[in-house]
Amino acid sequence: MKVLVLDNVSEKAVKILTEGGIEAVVNNDKMTEEELCNIIGEYDGVIVRSATKITAPVIAAGKNLKIIGRAGVGVDNIDIPAATNAGILVVNAPDGNTIAATEQTMALMLALARNLPQAHKDLKEGLWNRKLYTGVELRNKVLGLIGLGRIGTAVAKRAQAFEMKTIGYDPMVSPETAAANGIEFKPLEDVIREADFLSLHIPKTKESLNLINKDTIAMMKDGARIINVARGGIVNEQDLYEAVKSGKLAGAALDVFAEEPTTESPLFELNNVVVAPHLGASTKEAQINVALDVAEEFVNVLVKGEMAKNAVNLAPIKPDVLAAIKPYLNLAEKLGKFQAQLAAGNVNNVKITYSGELAKVEVTPLTTAFLKGFLTPQVEDSVNFVNAPVIAKERGIVVEETKSAEEGDYTALITVKVNDRVVAGTLFGEDDPRIIQIDQFRIDVVPEGNIVFVPHIDKPKIIGPVANIIGENNINIAGMQVGRKEIGGKAVMMLAVDTPLPDVLLAEIAKVDGVEEVRMITL
Protein backbone atom coordinates (compact mmCIF):
# COMPACT_ATOMS: atom_id res chain seq x y z
CA MET A 1 0.00 0.00 0.00
CA LYS A 2 1.20 3.48 -0.90
CA VAL A 3 -0.09 6.72 0.67
CA LEU A 4 0.55 10.33 -0.37
CA VAL A 5 1.00 12.69 2.60
CA LEU A 6 0.46 16.39 1.87
CA ASP A 7 0.10 19.76 3.64
CA ASN A 8 2.91 19.33 6.20
CA VAL A 9 1.11 16.64 8.14
CA SER A 10 3.06 15.68 11.28
CA GLU A 11 6.06 13.39 10.77
CA LYS A 12 4.72 11.22 13.59
CA ALA A 13 1.84 10.23 11.30
CA VAL A 14 4.35 9.17 8.63
CA LYS A 15 6.08 7.01 11.24
CA ILE A 16 2.82 5.25 12.12
CA LEU A 17 2.12 4.57 8.45
CA THR A 18 5.60 3.20 7.84
CA GLU A 19 5.60 1.02 10.95
CA GLY A 20 2.16 -0.27 9.91
CA GLY A 21 3.53 -1.53 6.59
CA ILE A 22 2.48 1.37 4.36
CA GLU A 23 4.83 3.23 2.03
CA ALA A 24 4.37 6.91 2.86
CA VAL A 25 5.39 9.50 0.27
CA VAL A 26 5.62 13.03 1.66
CA ASN A 27 5.13 16.02 -0.64
CA ASN A 28 4.77 19.39 1.05
CA ASP A 29 4.75 21.42 -2.17
CA LYS A 30 1.54 23.25 -2.99
CA MET A 31 0.12 21.42 -6.02
CA THR A 32 -2.49 22.46 -8.53
CA GLU A 33 -5.42 20.21 -9.33
CA GLU A 34 -3.76 19.19 -12.59
CA GLU A 35 -0.48 18.31 -10.87
CA LEU A 36 -2.30 16.23 -8.28
CA CYS A 37 -4.32 14.45 -10.97
CA ASN A 38 -1.08 13.48 -12.71
CA ILE A 39 0.32 11.60 -9.71
CA ILE A 40 -2.67 10.47 -7.62
CA GLY A 41 -3.29 7.36 -9.70
CA GLU A 42 -0.38 5.48 -8.15
CA TYR A 43 -1.58 5.87 -4.55
CA ASP A 44 -3.97 3.81 -2.41
CA GLY A 45 -4.61 6.73 -0.07
CA VAL A 46 -3.98 10.42 0.48
CA ILE A 47 -3.81 12.49 3.67
CA VAL A 48 -4.36 16.25 3.63
CA ARG A 49 -5.00 19.11 6.01
CA SER A 50 -6.96 22.12 4.80
CA ALA A 51 -4.71 23.47 2.04
CA THR A 52 -5.08 20.80 -0.66
CA LYS A 53 -8.45 20.29 -2.31
CA ILE A 54 -9.41 16.73 -3.23
CA THR A 55 -11.85 17.51 -6.04
CA ALA A 56 -13.98 15.28 -8.26
CA PRO A 57 -11.33 15.28 -11.06
CA VAL A 58 -8.65 14.26 -8.56
CA ILE A 59 -10.87 11.46 -7.28
CA ALA A 60 -11.59 10.32 -10.85
CA ALA A 61 -7.86 10.22 -11.53
CA GLY A 62 -7.22 8.22 -8.36
CA LYS A 63 -7.86 4.83 -9.92
CA ASN A 64 -6.29 3.03 -6.96
CA LEU A 65 -7.60 5.31 -4.21
CA LYS A 66 -9.28 3.49 -1.36
CA ILE A 67 -9.19 6.08 1.39
CA ILE A 68 -8.85 9.86 1.79
CA GLY A 69 -7.87 11.26 5.17
CA ARG A 70 -8.32 14.75 6.57
CA ALA A 71 -5.97 15.50 9.46
CA GLY A 72 -8.61 17.60 11.18
CA VAL A 73 -12.37 17.82 11.49
CA GLY A 74 -13.66 19.83 8.53
CA VAL A 75 -13.80 18.13 5.14
CA ASP A 76 -14.89 21.12 3.04
CA ASN A 77 -11.83 20.59 0.82
CA ILE A 78 -12.87 17.02 -0.09
CA ASP A 79 -15.64 16.22 -2.58
CA ILE A 80 -17.54 13.74 -0.39
CA PRO A 81 -20.25 12.78 -2.95
CA ALA A 82 -17.62 12.06 -5.60
CA ALA A 83 -15.62 9.94 -3.15
CA THR A 84 -18.71 8.02 -2.07
CA ASN A 85 -19.80 7.31 -5.63
CA ALA A 86 -16.30 6.05 -6.36
CA GLY A 87 -16.41 3.80 -3.30
CA ILE A 88 -13.60 5.71 -1.59
CA LEU A 89 -13.65 6.00 2.17
CA VAL A 90 -13.20 9.47 3.65
CA VAL A 91 -12.02 9.71 7.25
CA ASN A 92 -11.28 12.64 9.52
CA ALA A 93 -10.06 13.17 13.07
CA PRO A 94 -12.98 14.58 15.05
CA ASP A 95 -11.40 14.05 18.48
CA GLY A 96 -7.85 15.22 17.90
CA ASN A 97 -8.51 18.96 17.97
CA THR A 98 -11.57 19.02 20.24
CA ILE A 99 -9.70 20.60 23.14
CA ALA A 100 -7.88 23.08 20.91
CA ALA A 101 -11.13 24.33 19.32
CA THR A 102 -12.85 24.38 22.69
CA GLU A 103 -10.14 26.46 24.30
CA GLN A 104 -10.07 28.80 21.29
CA THR A 105 -13.80 29.36 21.74
CA MET A 106 -13.34 30.20 25.41
CA ALA A 107 -10.35 32.44 24.61
CA LEU A 108 -12.36 34.41 22.04
CA MET A 109 -15.35 34.64 24.33
CA LEU A 110 -13.22 36.08 27.13
CA ALA A 111 -11.36 38.39 24.75
CA LEU A 112 -14.68 39.62 23.38
CA ALA A 113 -16.19 40.14 26.82
CA ARG A 114 -13.18 42.02 28.20
CA ASN A 115 -11.95 43.82 25.05
CA LEU A 116 -8.48 42.36 25.53
CA PRO A 117 -7.12 42.56 21.95
CA GLN A 118 -8.19 46.19 21.60
CA ALA A 119 -6.76 47.19 24.98
CA HIS A 120 -3.54 45.31 24.24
CA LYS A 121 -3.13 47.09 20.91
CA ASP A 122 -3.77 50.54 22.37
CA LEU A 123 -1.41 50.06 25.30
CA LYS A 124 1.39 48.86 23.01
CA GLU A 125 0.85 52.06 21.06
CA GLY A 126 1.16 54.19 24.21
CA LEU A 127 -2.55 54.69 24.97
CA TRP A 128 -3.95 54.02 28.49
CA ASN A 129 -7.66 53.64 27.62
CA ARG A 130 -8.86 52.01 30.82
CA LYS A 131 -12.34 53.57 30.81
CA LEU A 132 -12.88 52.90 27.11
CA TYR A 133 -12.62 49.15 27.49
CA THR A 134 -14.99 48.35 30.32
CA GLY A 135 -16.19 44.81 29.68
CA VAL A 136 -18.85 42.40 30.87
CA GLU A 137 -18.64 39.29 33.06
CA LEU A 138 -19.52 35.82 31.83
CA ARG A 139 -21.12 34.88 35.15
CA ASN A 140 -24.92 34.67 34.94
CA LYS A 141 -24.89 35.27 31.18
CA VAL A 142 -26.69 32.91 28.81
CA LEU A 143 -24.46 30.99 26.43
CA GLY A 144 -26.44 29.75 23.44
CA LEU A 145 -24.83 26.82 21.64
CA ILE A 146 -25.82 25.81 18.13
CA GLY A 147 -24.31 22.37 17.74
CA LEU A 148 -23.93 20.01 20.69
CA GLY A 149 -21.27 17.64 19.42
CA ARG A 150 -17.87 17.08 21.00
CA ILE A 151 -16.76 20.71 20.87
CA GLY A 152 -20.13 22.23 21.73
CA THR A 153 -20.53 20.11 24.85
CA ALA A 154 -16.90 20.70 25.85
CA VAL A 155 -17.47 24.47 25.59
CA ALA A 156 -20.63 24.10 27.70
CA LYS A 157 -18.68 22.29 30.42
CA ARG A 158 -16.13 25.08 30.63
CA ALA A 159 -18.74 27.83 30.44
CA GLN A 160 -20.59 26.23 33.34
CA ALA A 161 -17.40 26.57 35.39
CA PHE A 162 -17.74 30.32 34.72
CA GLU A 163 -21.31 30.07 36.11
CA MET A 164 -22.91 30.70 32.74
CA LYS A 165 -26.34 29.30 31.92
CA THR A 166 -25.94 27.00 28.92
CA ILE A 167 -28.75 26.42 26.43
CA GLY A 168 -28.42 24.71 23.09
CA TYR A 169 -29.87 23.16 19.96
CA ASP A 170 -28.76 20.29 17.75
CA PRO A 171 -31.11 18.32 15.49
CA MET A 172 -29.06 15.16 16.07
CA VAL A 173 -29.00 15.36 19.87
CA SER A 174 -31.83 14.46 22.24
CA PRO A 175 -32.95 16.75 25.06
CA GLU A 176 -31.92 14.00 27.49
CA THR A 177 -28.37 13.92 26.15
CA ALA A 178 -28.14 17.69 26.32
CA ALA A 179 -29.43 17.68 29.90
CA ALA A 180 -26.82 15.09 30.87
CA ASN A 181 -24.21 17.70 29.90
CA GLY A 182 -25.91 20.47 31.85
CA ILE A 183 -27.39 22.06 28.73
CA GLU A 184 -31.03 23.07 28.51
CA PHE A 185 -32.24 21.90 25.11
CA LYS A 186 -34.35 24.47 23.26
CA PRO A 187 -35.63 25.04 19.72
CA LEU A 188 -33.17 26.85 17.46
CA GLU A 189 -35.09 30.13 17.43
CA ASP A 190 -35.28 30.18 21.24
CA VAL A 191 -31.52 29.65 21.53
CA ILE A 192 -30.94 32.58 19.16
CA ARG A 193 -33.41 34.81 21.02
CA GLU A 194 -32.18 34.10 24.55
CA ALA A 195 -28.40 34.02 24.13
CA ASP A 196 -26.14 36.75 25.49
CA PHE A 197 -23.28 34.94 23.77
CA LEU A 198 -24.12 32.79 20.74
CA SER A 199 -21.45 30.21 19.87
CA LEU A 200 -21.54 28.10 16.71
CA HIS A 201 -20.32 24.51 16.53
CA ILE A 202 -21.84 23.03 13.38
CA PRO A 203 -20.49 21.98 9.97
CA LYS A 204 -21.08 24.10 6.88
CA THR A 205 -23.87 22.49 4.87
CA LYS A 206 -26.58 23.69 2.52
CA GLU A 207 -28.82 24.02 5.57
CA SER A 208 -26.33 25.92 7.74
CA LEU A 209 -24.95 28.26 5.06
CA ASN A 210 -25.77 31.85 6.12
CA LEU A 211 -27.71 30.52 9.11
CA ILE A 212 -26.79 33.67 11.01
CA ASN A 213 -28.08 36.45 8.78
CA LYS A 214 -29.99 39.73 9.10
CA ASP A 215 -33.21 37.87 9.94
CA THR A 216 -31.79 35.64 12.65
CA ILE A 217 -29.67 38.50 14.01
CA ALA A 218 -32.86 40.57 14.28
CA MET A 219 -34.19 37.89 16.64
CA MET A 220 -31.21 38.24 18.99
CA LYS A 221 -31.04 40.32 22.14
CA ASP A 222 -29.79 43.86 21.70
CA GLY A 223 -26.16 43.86 22.80
CA ALA A 224 -25.64 40.11 22.30
CA ARG A 225 -22.35 38.75 20.98
CA ILE A 226 -21.50 36.04 18.41
CA ILE A 227 -18.54 33.64 18.43
CA ASN A 228 -17.73 31.45 15.43
CA VAL A 229 -14.91 28.90 15.63
CA ALA A 230 -16.76 26.42 13.41
CA ARG A 231 -16.81 27.18 9.68
CA GLY A 232 -16.80 30.33 7.60
CA GLY A 233 -20.03 30.93 5.73
CA ILE A 234 -22.33 29.97 8.59
CA VAL A 235 -22.39 33.66 9.51
CA ASN A 236 -23.25 36.13 6.76
CA GLU A 237 -20.35 38.52 7.20
CA GLN A 238 -22.01 41.53 5.57
CA ASP A 239 -25.10 41.15 7.77
CA LEU A 240 -22.88 40.74 10.82
CA TYR A 241 -20.98 43.90 9.89
CA GLU A 242 -24.20 45.90 9.67
CA ALA A 243 -25.46 44.54 12.99
CA VAL A 244 -22.27 45.36 14.89
CA LYS A 245 -21.86 48.75 13.24
CA SER A 246 -25.45 49.73 14.08
CA GLY A 247 -25.06 48.66 17.70
CA LYS A 248 -27.61 45.84 17.45
CA LEU A 249 -24.82 43.47 18.50
CA ALA A 250 -22.17 44.44 21.05
CA GLY A 251 -19.51 42.56 19.13
CA ALA A 252 -18.36 39.36 17.52
CA ALA A 253 -15.36 37.04 17.56
CA LEU A 254 -14.47 35.14 14.40
CA ASP A 255 -11.83 32.50 13.85
CA VAL A 256 -13.17 31.48 10.43
CA PHE A 257 -14.29 33.27 7.28
CA ALA A 258 -16.31 32.52 4.15
CA GLU A 259 -13.19 32.91 2.01
CA GLU A 260 -9.84 31.84 3.41
CA PRO A 261 -7.22 33.10 3.58
CA THR A 262 -8.61 36.61 3.89
CA THR A 263 -6.75 39.77 4.87
CA GLU A 264 -9.39 42.33 3.97
CA SER A 265 -12.91 42.61 5.34
CA PRO A 266 -15.24 45.41 6.46
CA LEU A 267 -15.37 43.57 9.79
CA PHE A 268 -11.70 44.43 10.37
CA GLU A 269 -12.67 48.10 10.56
CA LEU A 270 -14.83 47.50 13.66
CA ASN A 271 -12.99 47.77 16.97
CA ASN A 272 -15.45 45.48 18.75
CA VAL A 273 -14.88 42.56 16.37
CA VAL A 274 -12.12 40.16 17.46
CA VAL A 275 -10.60 38.10 14.66
CA ALA A 276 -8.06 35.29 14.24
CA PRO A 277 -6.72 33.50 11.14
CA HIS A 278 -8.42 30.12 11.67
CA LEU A 279 -6.43 29.10 14.74
CA GLY A 280 -9.04 26.75 16.22
CA ALA A 281 -6.94 23.63 15.70
CA SER A 282 -3.57 25.37 15.76
CA THR A 283 -1.95 23.94 18.83
CA LYS A 284 1.08 21.69 18.82
CA GLU A 285 -0.90 19.00 20.56
CA ALA A 286 -3.86 19.14 18.16
CA GLN A 287 -1.74 19.02 15.01
CA ILE A 288 -0.02 15.90 16.27
CA ASN A 289 -3.21 14.28 17.57
CA VAL A 290 -5.24 14.67 14.37
CA ALA A 291 -2.38 13.36 12.25
CA LEU A 292 -1.92 10.34 14.51
CA ASP A 293 -5.65 9.58 14.51
CA VAL A 294 -5.84 9.61 10.72
CA ALA A 295 -2.66 7.58 10.29
CA GLU A 296 -3.98 4.91 12.64
CA GLU A 297 -7.22 4.79 10.64
CA PHE A 298 -5.21 4.22 7.44
CA VAL A 299 -3.33 1.29 8.97
CA ASN A 300 -6.56 -0.23 10.31
CA VAL A 301 -8.35 0.08 6.96
CA LEU A 302 -5.59 -0.58 4.43
CA VAL A 303 -3.49 -3.13 6.29
CA LYS A 304 -5.75 -4.77 8.86
CA GLY A 305 -8.95 -4.65 6.79
CA GLU A 306 -10.98 -3.19 9.63
CA MET A 307 -13.81 -0.67 9.53
CA ALA A 308 -12.96 2.97 10.10
CA LYS A 309 -14.12 4.54 13.35
CA ASN A 310 -14.31 8.07 11.95
CA ALA A 311 -15.60 7.66 8.41
CA VAL A 312 -17.24 10.81 7.05
CA ASN A 313 -19.22 9.03 4.34
CA LEU A 314 -20.31 6.25 6.67
CA ALA A 315 -22.31 6.53 9.84
CA PRO A 316 -19.76 6.88 12.66
CA ILE A 317 -19.42 3.88 14.95
CA LYS A 318 -19.08 4.47 18.67
CA PRO A 319 -16.21 2.52 20.29
CA ASP A 320 -18.54 0.45 22.49
CA VAL A 321 -20.72 -0.44 19.50
CA LEU A 322 -17.70 -1.37 17.38
CA ALA A 323 -16.42 -3.61 20.16
CA ALA A 324 -19.77 -5.41 20.31
CA ILE A 325 -20.23 -5.98 16.57
CA LYS A 326 -16.63 -6.36 15.39
CA PRO A 327 -16.52 -10.17 15.84
CA TYR A 328 -19.65 -10.47 13.67
CA LEU A 329 -18.48 -8.33 10.73
CA ASN A 330 -16.66 -11.23 9.08
CA LEU A 331 -19.64 -13.54 9.65
CA ALA A 332 -22.04 -11.03 8.07
CA GLU A 333 -19.82 -10.64 5.01
CA LYS A 334 -19.46 -14.42 4.64
CA LEU A 335 -23.25 -14.81 4.83
CA GLY A 336 -23.49 -12.26 2.03
CA LYS A 337 -21.03 -14.12 -0.17
CA PHE A 338 -22.82 -17.40 0.57
CA GLN A 339 -26.26 -16.03 -0.29
CA ALA A 340 -24.94 -14.39 -3.46
CA GLN A 341 -23.81 -17.76 -4.77
CA LEU A 342 -27.10 -19.41 -3.87
CA ALA A 343 -29.38 -16.70 -5.22
CA ALA A 344 -31.38 -17.61 -8.30
CA GLY A 345 -32.96 -14.94 -10.52
CA ASN A 346 -33.34 -11.26 -9.71
CA VAL A 347 -32.98 -10.28 -6.08
CA ASN A 348 -35.64 -7.81 -4.99
CA ASN A 349 -35.68 -8.15 -1.24
CA VAL A 350 -33.16 -8.81 1.52
CA LYS A 351 -34.42 -9.24 5.05
CA ILE A 352 -31.88 -9.46 7.87
CA THR A 353 -32.93 -10.39 11.41
CA TYR A 354 -30.58 -9.87 14.33
CA SER A 355 -31.38 -11.95 17.39
CA GLY A 356 -30.13 -12.23 20.96
CA GLU A 357 -27.28 -9.92 21.96
CA LEU A 358 -27.16 -8.31 18.52
CA ALA A 359 -30.69 -7.01 19.02
CA LYS A 360 -29.34 -4.68 21.70
CA VAL A 361 -26.76 -2.82 19.59
CA GLU A 362 -26.53 -0.73 16.40
CA VAL A 363 -26.33 -3.27 13.58
CA THR A 364 -26.24 -1.10 10.45
CA PRO A 365 -22.50 -1.81 9.92
CA LEU A 366 -23.31 -5.54 9.92
CA THR A 367 -25.96 -5.00 7.26
CA THR A 368 -23.40 -3.08 5.21
CA ALA A 369 -20.91 -5.92 5.66
CA PHE A 370 -23.53 -8.39 4.41
CA LEU A 371 -24.24 -6.22 1.34
CA LYS A 372 -20.52 -5.94 0.64
CA GLY A 373 -20.22 -9.71 0.63
CA PHE A 374 -23.45 -10.19 -1.30
CA LEU A 375 -22.72 -7.69 -4.07
CA THR A 376 -19.01 -8.39 -4.61
CA PRO A 377 -19.50 -11.57 -6.71
CA GLN A 378 -22.22 -9.88 -8.78
CA VAL A 379 -20.91 -6.47 -9.83
CA GLU A 380 -17.91 -5.39 -11.85
CA ASP A 381 -17.14 -2.35 -9.73
CA SER A 382 -15.25 -2.63 -6.46
CA VAL A 383 -17.67 -2.98 -3.54
CA ASN A 384 -16.77 -1.74 -0.07
CA PHE A 385 -18.32 -0.48 3.14
CA VAL A 386 -18.84 2.95 1.57
CA ASN A 387 -20.67 2.15 -1.63
CA ALA A 388 -22.38 -1.18 -0.84
CA PRO A 389 -25.68 0.44 0.31
CA VAL A 390 -25.58 2.79 -2.70
CA ILE A 391 -25.09 -0.07 -5.16
CA ALA A 392 -27.87 -2.10 -3.54
CA LYS A 393 -30.25 0.84 -3.85
CA GLU A 394 -29.26 1.44 -7.48
CA ARG A 395 -30.08 -2.19 -8.21
CA GLY A 396 -33.52 -1.88 -6.65
CA ILE A 397 -32.75 -4.20 -3.73
CA VAL A 398 -34.95 -3.41 -0.74
CA VAL A 399 -33.08 -4.12 2.50
CA GLU A 400 -35.03 -4.65 5.71
CA GLU A 401 -33.49 -4.80 9.18
CA THR A 402 -35.36 -6.35 12.09
CA LYS A 403 -34.37 -7.27 15.63
CA SER A 404 -35.53 -10.04 17.91
CA ALA A 405 -34.60 -10.16 21.59
CA GLU A 406 -35.28 -13.89 21.72
CA GLU A 407 -31.98 -15.74 21.99
CA GLY A 408 -33.22 -19.23 21.16
CA ASP A 409 -30.38 -21.75 21.01
CA TYR A 410 -27.70 -19.14 20.37
CA THR A 411 -26.43 -16.08 22.19
CA ALA A 412 -26.51 -14.10 18.95
CA LEU A 413 -27.80 -15.00 15.50
CA ILE A 414 -27.87 -13.36 12.07
CA THR A 415 -30.63 -14.69 9.81
CA VAL A 416 -30.78 -13.52 6.21
CA LYS A 417 -33.62 -14.14 3.79
CA VAL A 418 -32.86 -13.36 0.14
CA ASN A 419 -35.99 -13.78 -1.96
CA ASP A 420 -37.17 -17.13 -0.53
CA ARG A 421 -33.86 -18.61 0.65
CA VAL A 422 -32.90 -18.41 4.33
CA VAL A 423 -29.36 -18.69 5.70
CA ALA A 424 -28.42 -18.14 9.34
CA GLY A 425 -25.08 -17.86 11.08
CA THR A 426 -23.56 -17.36 14.50
CA LEU A 427 -20.23 -17.42 16.30
CA PHE A 428 -18.88 -20.34 18.29
CA GLY A 429 -16.58 -18.73 20.82
CA GLU A 430 -15.12 -15.32 20.11
CA ASP A 431 -14.07 -15.77 16.49
CA ASP A 432 -15.38 -18.98 14.99
CA PRO A 433 -18.12 -18.18 12.44
CA ARG A 434 -20.55 -20.93 11.49
CA ILE A 435 -23.50 -21.32 9.15
CA ILE A 436 -26.06 -23.19 11.25
CA GLN A 437 -29.15 -23.08 9.01
CA ILE A 438 -30.02 -23.23 5.32
CA ASP A 439 -33.74 -22.93 4.68
CA GLN A 440 -35.38 -25.40 7.08
CA PHE A 441 -32.23 -27.49 7.56
CA ARG A 442 -29.96 -27.38 10.64
CA ILE A 443 -26.29 -27.75 9.75
CA ASP A 444 -22.87 -26.78 11.10
CA VAL A 445 -20.59 -25.45 8.36
CA VAL A 446 -17.46 -23.31 8.62
CA PRO A 447 -17.95 -20.58 5.96
CA GLU A 448 -14.58 -20.68 4.26
CA GLY A 449 -12.86 -22.29 1.31
CA ASN A 450 -14.74 -24.31 -1.31
CA ILE A 451 -18.12 -25.83 -0.51
CA VAL A 452 -20.29 -28.02 -2.73
CA PHE A 453 -23.96 -27.37 -1.97
CA VAL A 454 -26.24 -30.31 -2.88
CA PRO A 455 -29.97 -30.23 -2.00
CA HIS A 456 -31.43 -33.71 -2.49
CA ILE A 457 -34.06 -36.25 -1.50
CA ASP A 458 -33.32 -38.05 1.75
CA LYS A 459 -32.78 -41.59 0.50
CA PRO A 460 -29.94 -44.12 0.09
CA LYS A 461 -27.38 -44.07 -2.73
CA ILE A 462 -26.91 -40.32 -2.97
CA ILE A 463 -24.10 -39.38 -0.60
CA GLY A 464 -21.89 -42.26 -1.79
CA PRO A 465 -22.20 -41.60 -5.54
CA VAL A 466 -21.63 -37.86 -5.06
CA ALA A 467 -18.52 -38.50 -2.95
CA ASN A 468 -17.26 -41.06 -5.45
CA ILE A 469 -17.53 -38.60 -8.36
CA ILE A 470 -15.46 -36.09 -6.45
CA GLY A 471 -12.91 -38.59 -5.20
CA GLU A 472 -12.44 -40.29 -8.57
CA ASN A 473 -11.35 -36.93 -9.97
CA ASN A 474 -8.60 -36.62 -7.34
CA ILE A 475 -10.34 -33.85 -5.39
CA ASN A 476 -10.06 -34.25 -1.64
CA ILE A 477 -13.15 -33.92 0.54
CA ALA A 478 -12.15 -32.08 3.73
CA GLY A 479 -15.48 -32.33 5.50
CA MET A 480 -19.18 -33.04 5.08
CA GLN A 481 -22.44 -31.98 6.70
CA VAL A 482 -25.90 -33.38 6.00
CA GLY A 483 -29.13 -31.87 7.26
CA ARG A 484 -32.70 -33.10 6.94
CA LYS A 485 -36.08 -32.22 8.30
CA GLU A 486 -37.69 -35.66 8.19
CA ILE A 487 -36.92 -39.17 6.96
CA GLY A 488 -37.51 -39.48 3.24
CA GLY A 489 -38.10 -35.77 2.82
CA LYS A 490 -35.87 -33.04 1.48
CA ALA A 491 -32.27 -32.82 2.69
CA VAL A 492 -29.11 -30.85 2.05
CA MET A 493 -25.49 -31.95 1.72
CA MET A 494 -22.50 -29.64 2.16
CA LEU A 495 -19.06 -30.90 1.18
CA ALA A 496 -15.90 -28.93 1.90
CA VAL A 497 -13.35 -29.63 -0.85
CA ASP A 498 -9.74 -28.63 -1.29
CA THR A 499 -10.22 -27.28 -4.83
CA PRO A 500 -13.30 -25.99 -6.70
CA LEU A 501 -15.15 -28.52 -8.82
CA PRO A 502 -15.21 -27.78 -12.58
CA ASP A 503 -18.58 -27.39 -14.28
CA VAL A 504 -18.32 -30.83 -15.88
CA LEU A 505 -18.21 -32.50 -12.45
CA LEU A 506 -21.07 -30.38 -11.14
CA ALA A 507 -23.12 -31.50 -14.13
CA GLU A 508 -22.24 -35.13 -13.41
CA ILE A 509 -23.31 -34.80 -9.77
CA ALA A 510 -26.58 -33.22 -10.88
CA LYS A 511 -27.40 -36.43 -12.78
CA VAL A 512 -27.31 -38.57 -9.61
CA ASP A 513 -30.82 -39.83 -8.89
CA GLY A 514 -32.38 -37.76 -6.10
CA VAL A 515 -30.08 -34.73 -6.45
CA GLU A 516 -32.18 -31.59 -6.95
CA GLU A 517 -29.48 -28.94 -7.36
CA VAL A 518 -25.70 -28.48 -7.28
CA ARG A 519 -23.83 -25.26 -6.51
CA MET A 520 -20.11 -24.60 -6.13
CA ILE A 521 -19.58 -21.97 -3.44
CA THR A 522 -16.24 -20.28 -2.79
CA LEU A 523 -15.83 -18.19 0.36
TrEMBL record:
The keyword Amino-acid biosynthesis applies. Gene3D superfamilies: 3.30.70.260, D-3-phosphoglycerate dehydrogenase, domain 3, NAD(P)-binding Rossmann-like Domain. One of its GO terms (molecular function) is NAD binding. Keywords: Amino-acid biosynthesis, NAD, Oxidoreductase, Serine biosynthesis. Pathway: Amino-acid biosynthesis; L-serine biosynthesis; L-serine from 3-phospho-D-glycerate: step 1/3. Residues 451-523 form the ACT domain. It holds the Pfam family PGDH_inter. It catalyses: (2R)-3-phosphoglycerate + NAD(+) = 3-phosphooxypyruvate + NADH + H(+); (R)-2-hydroxyglutarate + NAD(+) = 2-oxoglutarate + NADH + H(+). Coiled coil: none annotated. One of its GO terms (biological process) is L-serine biosynthetic process. It is an enzyme of class 1 (oxidoreductase). The keyword NADP does not apply. Its EC number is 1.1.1.95. Catalyzes the reversible oxidation of 3-phospho-D-glycerate to 3-phosphonooxypyruvate, the first step of the phosphorylated L-serine biosynthesis pathway. Also catalyzes the reversible oxidation of 2-hydroxyglutarate to 2-oxoglutarate. Belongs to the D-isomer specific 2-hydroxyacid dehydrogenase family. This is D-3-phosphoglycerate dehydrogenase.
